[in-house]
Structure formats: C-alpha cells, structure tokens
C-alpha cells in the first residue's frame, strides 16, 4: 500500500521451523519468540528472547527506520506466520522506506553467529514496490536463491479480526509474486493492503540483505522476526533403580559444546525429584547431559541427543551406580601358609642352573690372563677371587689379574649363559708362577744352609748336609 509520511505501515519477517505444521490448529502457538528491535538512527539491534538463537545488529540506508508497537498492523493467527508462531499483535516490528530521494535502500541484518537451520522471514505490504533478498551462509559465501527458502504469498488483511491498517471492505486478494531468477519479491504496482510473502532458509544464515525499491508513490514496508519456542523435558534416573536427586543437567549443542544464555553462561538446570526441563529454546538439534551425583558415574546413557523441532518430552538420562569399595576384613578367611624352611646351604643356587666342568689356566706373576669358558659359554658375572681381581668382558670371556707379586693358585667362581640362554655356573683355577728368564741353573755345592738368588726372581733353597753322623745337625 502507498503511504504518506504520516502513515504507519507494516512489513514482516518471521521465523519458521522445519517439521512444524503451519496450518490452523485449535491451540494457538506460543508467540514469545518474536524479535525485539532497538533502533538508533540508521542502525540498531535485534534480539530474540529464545535460548540458542543468535542476537543480531542491523544497518540501513532507509531514509528513516523506526519500530511499530504491533497494535494496528499485525500477523493474525490465521495467517501462515500466526499459525506457526502465534499472533504478532502487540509485538514490535521494523518499518523501512527507500533511501533519500526515492533511491533503493539496503537493510542488512548481521547475526552474531549463524542461525539455526529453519528460521524464516516474511515481507509485508509489498504492493507498489519490490524487495530483493540476498544472504550469506555460515562460511560467508552468498546463499543460492533456492536456499533462501521461498514459501508462498498471502494477504494478512484476510485475518479476522483484520488489522486496522487494512482499509476498505475487501476482498483482500492482492499478493506479490516471487521471481527466483532475480530473487525479488515483486508487488503488483498498485496501492493495496496486506500483500505479503514469506521465506524459510534451508541453510544457516550469517546475514540477510533486503533491497527496497519503489514502483510508484511513496511506499514503505514492514519487518517482523520470530522463532518458534520449544521445550526439552525428561527424567534422570540410575541403572540400579535408586533415584538421582540434586542432579545438574546441562544443555549442549549438536557438537557437544555448552549452549550459552544471553549473559554468556552455560545453560543448566537442577532437579531434586528426577525431572528436568529446558523451556524457551529455539528449535534445533541439541544434547542433554546429566552430571554424576554422589554414588553415581556418568555412563553411556547420561547424555542423549535431541532433535527438537517441537516440544520434546520423555528424554531419559541414566546415571551408572558406582560400585562401592569393599570394606577391609579384620580376620583372614584362612590361616596363612607357613614360611618355608631355609635351605641348609648359605647360598642356594637355582635348581635349574647347571654346573660347567672346571677349567684351569696359568699365568706369570703380575700378568693378566684372558679366560675363554668351555662349551661356548658366555660369562655374565664373576665373583672376585681371594688373590686377584676378575673382569667380565663384552665377548663373554673373563680377564683374571693376580695381586702384585702373588705366586700360587687362585679360584674364580663365575655365572654364564649357554647358547640356548640357560644359566650355567662354573669354576676356573688360575695358577700364577715365576716368569722364565732363560738363565741356566748349575749344580752348586753348598756347605751349611744357604739362600742363593740366581737370575731375576728365582729362588733356590739348599739343605745343609754334614758328613759327621755324630753332629747334632747331621741329616
């Protein structure tokens, strides 16, 4: 309808949800999801009083932008929007015009986050004008015209009672037409009342832009927003049959992230009787999760997905009863087994350890000797001998080093592995003697007892021999 500057006119944007019937029903739907506008000059904000629907800001080049109260222009119960969202009577709407000088105006609504799939909008009083619609998706890319979700045209003056802005006796049959090629809602060019059309986007929306152009006169159009409120309700129980009082239930989005309220806090509810409810949600996909109470654990059934296209009840959450810790017993159920008798040997060996045949090696004084074990044994340990030291080499041999100037026999006790990996023990006898010098030892006649040193380190002992058998030392 063509209006003068003093006349208030109405256009509408409303939200619709997939799966929700928009036909007339006996019970009027909840109308609490209509948007609320705050306008300052050529900008402002839009808030929807439902949990889960993002807030938005808008900017416009309209020569004026203001809100109407919804008392004179509204979408009644019998219109497609009213049937889905309740009557908009008494709800705010946004009134927009062309730019100064009659040039087309652009109005862009930008949401704080992508909208849920299924919200919708309607444009009203589109008769002597046109509105071109464009949008961006969750990724910021332009949305195809088909995904804007054009639904149908209607005339809101057909409602009973009719809004007071609907003049004349009717019939109110004028409706605009949708041109999908140009994504434009086109009025018939004449001054009428109540011509409207509505959309339901099929993809998440980040922004919507409306370009308003005049065909004749000085037209205006109106804009409403609305989302259908739904409720999720259910019970919390346990798998052992005990009630689960004082349980906190959290509301999550489809990805399992917390849904936040208008203040940015996670949405939760607490129940003491096993029942819970989340009213005032925007329709969409959610999860509900029960936090464990005393004596319970979360378990696989403590979280449930919910496809809430309408009020959904009976969503049961089940906590797992924790298994109590067994109480300690003060008396053993059977007497303890007696301690085994110690072995008579001071150093018992494993019954599975074999004994290698003993071997003997020799070396010279102050000279180390390398010992190769028999039967391809590889030494892993050796006890220090009494008169020297022993080293276990990386190739499985032993190196014995006699103490300084030691002469005589020493014993090395060792542990080894055979080629099969079995443990074997054994003994090595090491004889340390004099070093050969190459000096010839000649017979020497001695009178009396004497000690003679011949060569380096060689000792000769001689016995005293007397020829007088009567001498006391005679031998």
TrEMBL record:
UniProt feature, compositional bias: Pro residues: 325-345
Annotated GO biological process: carbohydrate metabolic process
Keyword Ribosomal protein found: no
InterPro entries named among the record's database cross-references: Ig-like_fold
TM helices/strands, residue ranges: 441-462
Region (Disordered): 292-367
Bias-annotated ranges (Low complexity): 346-358
Gene3D superfamilies: 2.60.40.3440, Immunoglobulins (2.60.40.10)
Keywords: Membrane, Signal, Transmembrane, Transmembrane helix
Signal peptide: 1-26
Protein name as catalogued: Cadherin-like domain-containing protein
Biological source species: Prauserella cavernicola
Taxonomic lineage of the native organism: Bacteria, Bacillati, Actinomycetota, Actinomycetes, Pseudonocardiales
